[in-house]
Structure formats: C-alpha cells, structure tokens
TrEMBL record:
Domain Polymerase/histidinol phosphatase N-terminal: 5-79
Protein's UniProt name: Phosphatase
Keyword Signal: no
Pfam families xrefs: PHP, PHP_C
InterPro entries: Phosphatase_YcdX_put, PHP_dom, PHP_phosphatase, Pol/His_phosphatase_N, Pol/histidinol_Pase-like
Amino acid sequence: MQFSIDTHTHTISSGHAYSTLLENAQAAASKELALFCVTDHAPSMPGAPHFWHFANQRVLPRFLHGVGILRGIEANILNQQGEIDIAPRISSQLDWVIGSLHEPIFSPATRQLHTEALLNVIRSGRIHALGHLGNPNFDFDFEAVVSAAAEHDVLVEINNSSLCGSREGSQPRCEQIAAFAKEVGARITTGSDAHFAHDVGNFSHVSQLLKKVGFPLEQVVTHHPRCFLDFLQDRGQQPIEAFADL
C-alpha cells in the first residue's frame, strides 16, 4: 500500500527532534510525498514552543521542495474532559490538529478514565485525528473509542514510530485497533511521527500492519492527496487554493 501524505512530523521546535522544516521538506520530496503536515508538540509538552509558533504558521509557504505543507499541531489531551492545550482561536487557523495522550502531560491512569478522555476529545470537534493510540500505557475501550471516531469523522492514526520501538508493546494493540476500524468503517491516517528528517515518509511498518489485517484502501485518507484534502473540507476546513490541482 502506497501513501502520499505524512500527517505527523516534528521539527527542532518540538525540543526533542533534530531536523528543520526545510530538511523535513527535502526528505519528503526524496520520498515523493505530495503533502506533509508540520505537527510540532503543543505548548504543554516539556521543551515545546510557545503558542506564537503555531499562531505564526501563516508565514510558511504552501510548497517547499515541491511538497505541499499543511500547518498543524500535535495537541496534548489534558484531562478526562478531553480538553487540549491550544486555544480555539489558534487551532482554528491551522489545517490539521492531532490529539494525543503523552505521559508527561496526562499521567497514565485507568482504562475507564483514558476511554472517557478519548471519547470527550472526539466529541469536542476540536481534533482531526487521534495520535498513536497503540501506546500500552494508555489502555482504553477500543470498540467504544474507534466507533465514536467513525461516528464523528475523527481519524485513527497508525503511527510508524510506535511500531518500531518508540512505544514498546504497541504492535499487537495497533493490529487490534486497525482490525476494529476496518469492521466499523472508521478511517485512518498514517504518520511517521518523524523526529529526524530521515524518517519523514517512512511507513514501512504501517504498510506491513495494514496488509496483515487486510485494511481497505478506501478507508485510508493518506493514499491520495485529494482524499486527504476532501476529508479536511468535509470537517469544515476552507479549501486550500494552492492545492487545487492536487
């Protein structure tokens, strides 16, 4: 399965990543991606940039090295109520918002509490995708959350980094999540979660997993740029004129 968009990448602005936006764009071009999303960590993460970093993304060109740039953020889910750490006036200016649970921000608790936090952030309408759900430190009710994601048109991310060591124990859980997403018609997105340019557009483990569970192409929004851009418009984003020909 081929993917033309990487929806989860970090730059040096995240504080624990090692490449610039220009270096990531060059890497994306070398992988022949059509688009990639800039998703640095939101301000609550230790080492993350100030909210001005996200408010000022309008200065970014829409193309670098021939690859389209989507302005985004990996927001932190803060609590059981599903609140995230970026103001609506800032996130409304962005193209793409991932919501993720991270240990430094949300201390791992019970399966029920994690489930409620994920359900509430889905229902809030403030995110486009749930990041790296396979993390075993945040167990949750797969059926309830994935079904809610399908109902509210929130994407489930299959995260390549989770499948190659960054969150040990994610592999079997990601398989179960993908299998259930397939069953209920939930759509997925594919992110490298690159913290170094070399990994931008690396979906080797994602591809193997989706093949293993027989995941249908039509439920993968990153298989074609128009599919992804149409998803954003369906979620209420304004069309991006620069990408009209993609």
